[in-house]
Every structure is written in structure tokens, then in C-alpha cells.
Write a structure and sequence with these properties.
Number of strands: 0
Helix content: over 70%
Shape: flat
Mean pLDDT: 92
Low-confidence stretches: none
Radius of gyration: 16 Å
Length: 122
Amino acid sequence: MKKLSVAHGLDYLLALCTFAGFLAVLQTFIIGKHYIIPTILLLFTVLLGNFAWYGLKQVKWAQYVNFWIGFIATSHLFFAVFWAKTPREILGDAFEPVFIVLTLAMLFLTVFYARRNLLFKR
């Protein structure tokens, strides 16, 4: 249970994205009967899986990549609060609370990931 901490939060989030990517590959290949799209999805799924794996193994280059993925995702969520159209239409009045909570959660996860793994220590 030592691995289940904020220090590995982004690693586990990327592992979850890897699992979702794997399911998307299966869905587009088997159900959708597409052959090019699953190959591209598989490429990104394998990359994310490797970043998650090596991040959990405390490999610094992977932790830096995972941090920057978290930083970009946090920025994306932040800007979506102001300019996203489709999620706002889908969620209606719940859009702001949902996206603000997601943005703060991702910010918390990214900042503490960097701190706990001493990525930018002085």
C-alpha cells in the first residue's frame, strides 16, 4: 500500500488512461471494424502505459514526462472553464462546479506529484 499515495497519483491516472485506451482500441477494432484508427490509438496507449509503468518504478525521465502531461491537462481544464462550448452544453448549470473541481483536483495532483518526487528540488 506504500505505492498508493499522492506521489504516484499521476502514474495511476495515466495507468487508468492506458486501460481506457486499450478498451477504445478493442471497441474500434472489434465492434467498429476499423483497422487504421485502433493502430493510432494503440500507439498512444502503449506510450501512456510506459510512462505510467516507469513513473511507478521511480524513473526520473518518466516522472518528468508525467508531470508535464499533468501540467498540460491542468491547463486544458482551466481554459475549458472559460471557453469550452460542448461540455457546457452537455452539463448545463453543473458545468462550472464540475470543471472547477476537476481543475483543482488535477492541480493538486500535479503539484504534489512534483513535490513528493522531488522533481524540481533546489
